[in-house]
């Protein structure tokens, strides 16, 4: 049996309110009794814990889950640990991160959208401010005697707090992390990042940010282990990779030159075959039809193929590059004899593959809302093909055809909370001292809210009743501990809602009801330029799927089982009220507000702006 605490005791908070003084204070030292509070100490043998969260990686990208992009580090961790094939995210970055860090649903911790000024709203589920009674994993683990470090992308600090004047209570160091090195927003240039160390902005060193954050993570671990060899640490490693901009060191530029010349249609066919062979999808799975907006590869011109393939070569190099950086951490742990007692959770993507690269691919964006034709954009990309992947490509993102390919075997993409393509991501759990079924496959349903309770139970820790004197609210996550040694155990996470700016879904016992919102709009930059994009929520078309038999949503059963659909729609309403999802807010509303903020800023400064972080999903 793996060391841990029972599922029952997991739900009970340890009472950790401040200790009352237990000494005696007399008039003199002789008639007094000294006392000091008992130091917080982790249980003997408690594992180090590392959470790795990649950005904008589809289910069919990494070789660890059948993709054609080599990720040898992730392959190794999966082959010595467990692959979870039915794991889910929130379909976009900030909601996923807030849910992951707290073990609670995105709107319940006020992150229905973003913490950015132009992408938040003054409602309980939408204001972008995680409440203090919903503590983060760092706060929980520090109460259990851990040192806590974070590097890379944080993404849940409100814009107005993200200056050197603070306040700092919503920065990582204000949310339980002893040290932080990375960026607070949703996106940053990998060579000129908006870089923060602890509670101050600092000057980047000119290297690729992913190399710098990895150096810093290794430094944190080394210093801590030298000072306190028996004290466990928690590392939250959340690189910007592979979110735009796709930028890699020059030595990686041609790693995959010519490797994707066969195109996205062949890629999809090869990947689904690999996934079946690997056992991460059902053996009878079928590939969904190519999205109607994407052209068949064999109909493209030679110049189109050349440009599109180059975007994918750089993306692939970027994913392998970040895999290599994780490999540096794994190797360091081996060198200091800590790997066997380190518990890894590797989430390959905070949502599905990004659809923000447009049909043509993006190098640099113009002002938000600017109308650029496909022909103009392609011509510019062709002329500047040598800039793809370089520091000059400040918003490099691959074309939509590659997003669909790297999302194999699912339909649709990031932001589509209604679809598995937006929310279905790979999970790897690796723990040499605690997992016996090396290379095992687990198909139990899971969600990012489950990672915190799983961590606590597997590591044999306790949830604190209080953090900084504030009584803590309950979690919504369900520990996956029960599945570690039982591949056939029934899923215990049986109900989950999804919502991103209009698109929404509700899952219950294998059934899923879902509604797309603005389904005909792909590129948000184009959407923002539309004169009229209003779309009533009442007009959204709901679909119904039995994921137990149709895991990648090929057969809509809404007309066949209208009562089941009605039942799930009612459940969504109940759930939405419970977790502060209402009011429903869609992309059109958000983009209008974002443009208003951008235009207002331009009028005040006399300079064009894209509203900073708010323009970076």
Give a quick summary of the entry:
Belongs to the sulfatase family. The protein is 27% helix and 12% strand.
Tally of discrete structural domains: 1
What is the CATH superfamily?
A: Alkaline Phosphatase, subunit A
- Number of strand elements: 18
* CATH architecture descriptor name: 3-Layer(aba) Sandwich
CATH classification class = Alpha Beta
Q: How would you describe the oligomerization state of the chains in this entry? A: single chain
Q: What is the overall number of helices?
A: 14
Distance from first to last alpha carbon: 43 Å
Q: What descriptive keywords fit this protein?
A:
617 residues, alpha/beta, Alkaline Phosphatase, subunit A, ten-stranded mixed β-sheet, globular, metal-binding, calcium, Sulfatase_CS, Sulfatase
Fold and architecture overview:
This is Sulfatase. Belongs to the sulfatase family. Residues 47-460 form the Sulfatase N-terminal domain. The chain has one domain (53-481, 488-603): 3-Layer(aba) Sandwich (Alkaline Phosphatase, subunit A). The protein is 27% helix and 12% strand. The chain has 14 helices and 18 strands. The strands form four sheets. Strands 7-6-5-4-8-1-9-10-2-11 form a ten-stranded mixed β-sheet, with helices on both faces. A four-stranded antiparallel β-sheet has the order 15-16-17-18, with helices on one face. It has a two-stranded parallel sheet with strand order 3-12. A hairpin with a 2-residue loop joins strand 6 (196-197) and strand 7.
